[in-house]
């Protein structure tokens, strides 16, 4: 069964009198353990697509299914609950909380989701060790390098054990070598955990390392080699 299925998704915005049809008829399924690169020019609708897939934004038409469950008839609370249990997000900028340590940044979302502090911190420490960031556990984001910050953000995104990982230019802010390292971390974690991952990137070398590549053309998904 697909972790994510986008079925005939449509989304438009209005700009004054003009109507911008950003997503016209999006069909895409991603299965457990599959990594998919979303490569398209700026303005093509990648962020919109990721927000719809992650239940942060509603489509105007079509259906978003998570683990086979249709979500369009759910209310906002139901969608938020489903998102917290199944979806992890990674952005171009890490959005780590500046006043908290790396460990706390990873543990906090789990505590918000109801896990007790000890369990959340144990899980966070395991993730940091796995990513060889153990010695950085007590550091605040400002004390970490750009690549370390982004790897902590990746750990945070997977700490809740999501089924679906959505990333919007996760290496867009990093130099090429650091990008390669951060990306390797992302692939290792995704494959190790059997996640379905949809990763928007402009980096064709990184896209080539994923299982599938898709692009957006005139509001539709096209599979590319
Ligand atoms: P990408 O991530 O591929 O750069 P986006 O999904 O951010 O593309 O945006 C696609 C298009 O939709 C852009 O032209 C953008 O200006 C427009 N857009 C995005 N969000 C809104 C919004 N809330 N209101 C109006 N236009 C929007
Ligand atoms: P962008 O990636 O387009 O620069 P942001 O990363 O700031 O945008 O987030 C886009 C939108 O998604 C914002 O409205 C933000 O509040 C919301 N958002 C980001 N992460 C989460 C999350 N984990 N849960 C709920 N809403 C989120």
Automatic annotation (TrEMBL):
Entry keyword Transmembrane helix: no
Gene3D superfamilies assigned: P-loop containing nucleotide triphosphate hydrolases (3.40.50.300)
GO biological process: lipoprotein localization to outer membrane; protein localization to outer membrane
GO MF term list: ATP binding; ATP hydrolysis activity; transmembrane transporter activity
Family in the record: Belongs to the ABC transporter superfamily. Macrolide exporter (TC 3.A.1.122) family.
Segments forming domain ABC transporter: 4-224
UniProt name for this protein: Lipoprotein-releasing system ATP-binding protein LolD
Keywords: ATP-binding, Cell inner membrane, Cell membrane, Lipoprotein, Membrane, Nucleotide-binding, Translocase, Transport
GO cellular component, one term: membrane protein complex
Xref: InterPro entries: AAA+_ATPase, ABC_transporter-like_ATP-bd, ABC_transporter-like_CS, ABC_transpr_LolD-like, MacB-like_ATP-bd, P-loop_NTPase
Protein source organism: Methylocystis echinoides
């Amino acid at each position: 069964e697909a972790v994510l299925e986008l079925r005939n998704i449509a989304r438009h915005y209005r700009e004054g009198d003009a109507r911008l049809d950003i997503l016209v008829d999006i069909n895409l399924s991603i299965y457990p353990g599959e990594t998919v690169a979303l490569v398209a020019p700026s303005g093509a609708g990648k962020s919109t697509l990721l927000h719809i897939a992650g239940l942060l934004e509603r489509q105007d038409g079509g259906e978003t299914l998570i683990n086979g469950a249709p979500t369009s008839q759910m209310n906002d609370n139901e969608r938020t609950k489903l998102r917290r249990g199944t979806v992890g997000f990674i952005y171009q900028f890490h959005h780590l909380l500046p006043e908290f340590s790396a460990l706390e940044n990873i543990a906090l979302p789990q505590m918000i989701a109801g896990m007790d502090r000890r369990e959340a911190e144990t899980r966070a420490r395991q993730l940091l060790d796995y990513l060889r960031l153990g010695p950085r556990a007590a550091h605040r984001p400002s004390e970490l390098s750009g690549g370390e910050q982004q790897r902590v953000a990746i750990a945070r995104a997977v700490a809740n054990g999501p089924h679906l990982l959505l990333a919007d230019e996760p290496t867009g802010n990093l130099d090429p070598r650091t990008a390669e390292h951060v990306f390797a971390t992302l692939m290792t974690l995704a494959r190790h955990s059997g996640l379905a991952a949809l990763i928007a990137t402009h980096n064709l070398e990184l896209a080539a390392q994923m299982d599938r590549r898709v692009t957006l053309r005139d509001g539709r998904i096209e599979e590319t080699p």
